[in-house]
Amino acid sequence: MNKIFKTIDEQIEILEEKGLIIDDVDNTKEILLRENYFFISGYRHLFLRSPESKKFIPGTNFRELYALFNFDRQLRNIIFKNILIIENNIKSVIAYNLSKTFGITEKNYLNPKNFNRDPDKIRQVNDLLKKMKRQIRINGGQHAATSHYIANYGYIPPWIVVKVLSFGIVSELYGILKIENQKEIAEIFNVNYQDLSSYLTILSNYRNLCAHEDIVFEHRAQKPIYNTKYHQLLNVDIMDGEYIYGKEDLFAVLIIFKFLLRKDDFTLLLNEVSYEIDVLEGKLSVIPVNKVLDKMGFPENYKEIARL
User: Are the C-beta atoms of 128 and 173 separated by less than 8 Å?
Assistant: First the structure.
């Protein structure tokens, strides 16, 4: 059955029929128009009587639904700016490694022989190098630095090229490097080279979510991260032999930040996240904030990760 367009008044009527309290109709109309009814309604399930029910928990106010919406927005902003820090760091380190190992002209550092030559990787290497050259060709002319190098030197060195490559491409680039190069890069961040590959893939996914204002607080990555010392030190509960938090959820992203960010940056991030959780708690009444934390994959003692 096709969806039918609903006016703002009809949208409010639907919400009220489902038991949502709206005590400021004019303000709610403006919010629904500006923010999109269907996006805001994507946060409703935590406030429903049961997973199967379409009715809100008695006493649920639109303000609480909107508070969760705004909490997720602030969370996205915090996550996004910290992913950008890591993106810049990994681009810089990869560019340095490519330059040092293979040279500074495209014909040198983009030579397929420089990358993983396993038979099951060759197609991926060739495809990714084509993608990189396409991004360089399309985006190169739009940046002053790339235009400068092309005009004055006839080539673009790696430390300039990475500026025009997406984080997704750069994370794939790390994945096709020879293992010895991956290990050199991972050592800079004091992590295992296979873990770093997983971390970059997950961060690239979350970067896209943040950039497109998708729901982040309850998002799950396609693949879980490997068990870490933080799971054990925080005594994260285990069910069916697997940690229930910090695997493919937002807490897993926090663990990745713990590994890849400098200490001061991570402390600031955690303080900002904790502040937003406290703000949200003060605006909730029909559900406890722990219900939100559970959806985020945050254990109740999540703040202790700062001192570990």
Answer: yes
- C-beta atoms surrounding 181 within 10 Å: 21
Which token pair is 123? 């197609």
Phi and psi for 243 in degrees, rounded to 5?
-65, 135
Report how far residue 17's alpha carbon sits from residue 19's, in angstroms, rounded to the nearest whole number.
5
Dihedral sign from CA coordinates of 31, 33, 36, 38: positive
The Cα–Cα gap between 77 and 177 comes to 31
- What letter represents residue 134's amino acid? R
Report the alpha-carbon distance of residue 295 to residue 110 in Å, rounded. 42
pLDDT digits (tens, 9 = 90+) for 211-269: 999 999 999 999 999 999 999 999 999 999 999 999 999 999 999 999 999 999 999 99
Q: Of 296, 306, 295, 292, nearest to 233 (Cα)? A: 306
Give CA–CA dist 130/237, Å, rounded: 45
The Cα–Cα gap between 109 and 129 comes to 10
156: amino acid identity, one letter: I
Residue 102, Ramachandran bin (φ over 0: left; ψ between -120 and 50: alpha; else beta): alpha
- Contact present, 140 and 220 (Cβ < 8 Å): no
pTM for this prediction: 0.95
Give, in degrees to the nearest 5, the angle at Cα 89 between 85 and 93: 175
CB 49 within 8 A of CB 286: no
Residue 36: left (phi > 0), alpha (psi -120 to 50), or beta? left
Q: Do 65 and 40 meet the contact criterion of CB atoms below 8 Å apart?
A: yes
